[in-house]
Amino acid sequence: MQNLLKTRHITTVVSLIVLSFVGGVYVGNHNRPEIDKIMGLTNKETQVATKADFFPFWKVWNTINEKYPKSDEVTDQNRIYGAISGLIDSLDDPYSVFFDPEETKTFEEEIAGNFIGIGMEVGIKNKILTVIAPLKDTPAYRANIKSGDKILKIDKISTSDLSIEKAIKLIRGEKGTAVTLTVLREGNEDPMEIKIERDTINIPTLDTELRKDGIFAIKLYSFSANSANLFRNAIKQFVESRSDKLLLDLRGNPGGYLDSAISISSWFLPSGKTIVTEDYGDSKKPEVFRSKGYNIFNDNLKFVILIDNGSASASEIVAGAMQNHGRATLVGTQSFGKGSVQEVVDITPDTILKITVANWLTPLIPDYLVEITKKDSGEKKDPQLEKAVEILLK
């Protein structure tokens, strides 16, 4: 995993993730086994009291030991992991999840940007597992998976009661093996089955192009840990090109690090301007993230951002900030929409908890709503790009 600062913000799909370090909770003394020792907790970390009655929990624990025929095959450690997962399930939140050591390793590989899978971001939309966006040049991309596809089954398993993490675990597997997704696509009456072979996924980040018409285009695929530096280099190329027309394509960009979104937005906003506000409900005051004030462009900059329903979280932060401050014109379709803020907590050296702490963002509505029809796709036309070019060349 990439070496990060102690506190990090990550937006994945519809999730904003913050790394911090906390301990455990005191759970009472009803004949409990040495859970503190099992979980590696210190005395200080177990001193938070609760009024909950843990007698039923320990009675079930002891009943398993006394009556279940294979109780000796389930370690105390795995029981604790199972109990924690059940505790998180009680929140009825698909984005809060406990990762055991194996799942933690997988999560860290994904954040580092290299893993085995099919290469797409998914989220829960209207209580349905939905594709945010396939990543460029991945098995999902080549299999024609589309943003907005509703995944009804993974192989033969219904997704109706699956959390995001359980769905991802089913989609992933060994390199060279296949997974079959049953997908319902908007405009189609019947679901279709798409078989996809798993492969190593390297998450793409950024492409640049100085077009013949003088427009400098940046295609940003994700907000990875290094995207801020890559974007800085892209901005340097843009300045050196002497163009005053900038096109930022965030279509199909499912998000990434919040810090990258703040840094990228700061190239276009004065210091102190609000980029995004996180609403934590009644638990604490909203947190405001502001521009760092790079702000190297004057008001003569012509700036268009492309978005679609695959633009999520960090993409919505950048596009929304530019729209709110009148720095860019948005073209395309409504973005993915509502996200949630998670905090990633180290529970033990090899386990983590990802828990929702806030809600944020509603879908962005572009200034120019432009759809891409099936006919456009068949003829390889891009009316959204055409509209963006028209605006920039006025």
TrEMBL record:
Sequence similarity: Belongs to the peptidase S41A family.
Parts of the chain that traverse the membrane: 12-29
PDZ domain boundaries: 104-172
Classification lineage: Bacteria, Candidatus Yanofskyibacteriota
A cellular component annotation (GO) from this entry: outer membrane-bounded periplasmic space
One annotated GO molecular function: endopeptidase activity
GO BP: any one term: signal transduction
Protein name per its UniProtKB record: Carboxyl-terminal protease
Keywords, sorted A to Z: Hydrolase, Membrane, Protease, Serine protease, Transmembrane, Transmembrane helix
Pfam families reported in the protein's UniProt record: CtpB_N-like, PDZ_2, Peptidase_S41
Gene3D superfamilies xref list: 2-enoyl-CoA Hydratase, Chain A, domain 1 (3.90.226.10), 2.30.42.10, 3.30.750.44
